[in-house]
Amino acid sequence: MAGHQHGAPKSGSNPLPGVKHIIAVGAGKGGVGKSTVAVNLAIALKAKGLAVGLMDGDIYGPSIPKMLGSHDAPRGLAPNRIAPNEAYGLKFMSMGLLLDPEKPMIVRGPIVHTVVRQFLGDVVWGDLDYLIVDLPPGTGDVALSLAQSCPLTAAVVVSTPQDVALIDVQKAVSMFRTLNVPVVGLVENMSWHECGSCGAREEIFGHGGAERWAARERIPFLGGVPLHASVAAGGDEGQPALVDPRTPDHVRTAFRVLADGLAEQTATLASLPKQPLIQIEGLS
Ligand SMILES: Nc1ncnc2c1ncn2[C@@H]1O[C@H](COP(=O)(O)OP(=O)(O)O)[C@@H](O)[C@H]1O
Ligand SMILES: [Mg+2]
Fold first, then answer.
1. In this structure, are residues 131 and 53 in contact, taking their beta carbons and an 8 Å threshold?
2. Distance in angstroms (rounded) separating the CA atoms of residues 209 and 86
3. Which of 44, 114, 115, 138 has the fewest CB atoms found within 10 Å of its own CB?
């Protein structure tokens, strides 16, 4: 595998030389399906034959261990070296694996930066084509730490079709643009519902708003994900929709289209000049 193609300005400043593309999945709002999209996107990329890692950037409210049904404490390999867990062929790391689930989680602001750096630098990710990072809601410190600590290839933003969700995703896009991270795709989650008995497509929240908004913002529209019980159940049962044999084809196809679109967009980016790591005063 080729080394990382994004030229870090200082030697030693890229903690992930073996990772080709680091993709942040974000949105302004909680509950729109960021984690669901991140997990299934990662699995869809894996199914294309790529090596994929998933980093749970939601330090305050990690959901990846539950979604992947894997809660084992990660193995320490050496001081400051930990092996990522593996599930469904994905390497992953989450704050949820490191804390006692019985105890309330108290993570202070400055700790977040340290955790993000450790998840990048101390976890032995090895050679990956994609590292997908599931971000917490909001436009806060995790995205900032991430952009400062590794050469982010791009961001994908997730919205629902409602206008109110687009206002929030707009904030996320502004944040990524401030951080010099190209936004290579909008995903519209809970886009439509396919009637189980007649197969009709019901667009509960209206049609086309997110796609029009993406066109105005010059953000590629990667596609929509239907609202479907298999997607919700996957999140709860530790068996993501894409690995559950009961998941209907129209749901599978939706996630595959997203993965194809992301792969296409990152291939385009690879031919463009690279962004340097951003430096932020007062953080190191
Ligand atoms: N397309 C979908 N169809 C049905 N349920 C969904 C879909 N996307 C997400 N959900 C459910 O919505 C809830 C929030 O999703 P989640 O991915 O945790 O959002 P976020 O990470 O943005 O907070 C979860 O219970 C999840 O299972
Ligand atoms: Mg989440």
1. yes
2. 37
3. 114
Is residue 225 in contact with ligand 1, taking CB distance under 6 Å?
yes
Q: Measured between alpha carbons, how far is 147 from 179 in angstroms, rounded to an integer?
A: 7
Q: Are 240 and 43 in contact (CB under 8 A)?
A: yes
CATH number for region 19-270:
3.40.50.300
pTM value is: 0.90
Question: Does residue 190 have its Cβ closer than 6 Å to ligand 1?
Answer: yes
Q: How far is CA 147 from the centre of its chain?
A: 14
Distance 68 CA to ligand 1 centre (A): 14
Q: What is the pLDDT of residues 196-247, one digit of tens each?
A: 778 788 887 777 888 999 999 999 999 999 999 999 988 888 999 999 999 9
**How many whole angstroms separate alpha carbon 148 and alpha carbon 284?**
9
Tell the residue number behind the tokens 């129209």, with chain if given: 250
